[in-house]
Amino acid sequence: MAHAAIYVGFTVSQLLRGAGRIFPTHSSLVVLRHSAFCSCTVNSTIKSKRKMDHLERTANNFRHEVISQAKVCGITNESETVKRLRLAMANKDFTFKAGQWVDFFIPGVSVVGGFSICSSPGLLEREGILELAVKHTLHPPAHWVHTECTLDSEVALRVGGDFFFDPQPGDSPVKLVLIAGGVGINPLFSILLHIADLHGYQEGKGNGYKMGTVKLYYSAKNTSELLFKKNILGLMNAFPGKITCHFHVTQQRSHICKELQPHVTEGRISAKDLEKHVSKDTLWYICGPPPMIESVSKLLSNMGVPRNCVFFEKWW
Asked: Domain FAD-binding FR-type: where (predicted)?
């Protein structure tokens, strides 16, 4: 998922024994089920006093039948608290859709992690590489990533999730508005990279899915916590007018660098920011803390955006 704090009591071997289960496949543009973490209900609230674990929260979500071994081939600091892992996938049948997450199995760690993929399906197809961005917490999988993971460390992954964007060549063009809060950027960055691949394929081949414009609104406490900001600016420059981004910071204390200044607004994402993008062919994807999702969903509802055009995933 787009989070790192997941509390789980299942062992890797227990989950691996269940890997033979057959799961349904999905071919539609966007598939979204009602579940504990991913819902179209704009007035949903979090009532549970106990933090449900990753496997409990995602028990009713789609999971691929393939579990793949992977080897860490790159580790970088995306921010002071977030590490970006580059993983070489061993299983050539391993696939995912932009926006999905993985079950994260670590040898010697009984707790199963869950992290949203932050790379594009195209990178996996081209290079056999998948990337995760993991924020440091004391939760065992996240703690392992930050304190024990090294180059050539081996893990296992299984993809899952009903929050994704996967248009097919015959589908009607749509516009997207992506709204991210904190590390909720992870699945939306994957979608953004996938859209860049679609634009690139369209320009190079002249066929395939014709993508509409994409607007990203990304909020964090300060610019140092804006993940992937250089990559995002690069995508804007590569696809002017097709991909645009607006960064929002809520607790900025330091000077904002010249490169970011034109794209940064101090303050939260507001109805004024979003209302200009309302149209019948626009889809809205939201990922961030539950209070943010509930607030933005309410704003969209008040602006008349149909519920079936709003998709979100909660991290906690």
From this structure: 65-192
Report the alpha-carbon distance of residue 247 to residue 229 in Å, rounded. 9
- Dihedral angle sign, alpha carbons of residues 291, 97, 135, 234: negative
Q: Helix, strand or coil for residue 163?
A: coil
The whole-angstrom separation of Cα 281 and Cα 215 is 14
Task: Report the C-alpha gap between 218 and 248 in whole angstroms.
Answer: 6
Predicted TM-score of the model (pTM):
0.84
In the sheet where 264-266 sits, what is the strand order? Answer: 264-266, 243-249, 214-220, 175-181, 282-288, 310-314
Average pLDDT over residues 91-115: 95
Tokens of 294: 């509930």
DSSP classification of residue 313:
E
pLDDT-derived band at 48, boundaries 50, 70, 90: very low
- The predicted-structure confidence for 123-149, as pLDDT tens digits, reads as follows 999 999 999 999 999 999 999 999 999
When pLDDT is cut at 50, 70 and 90, the band that residue 57 belongs to is confident
DSSP 8-state secondary structure symbol assigned to residue 4: S
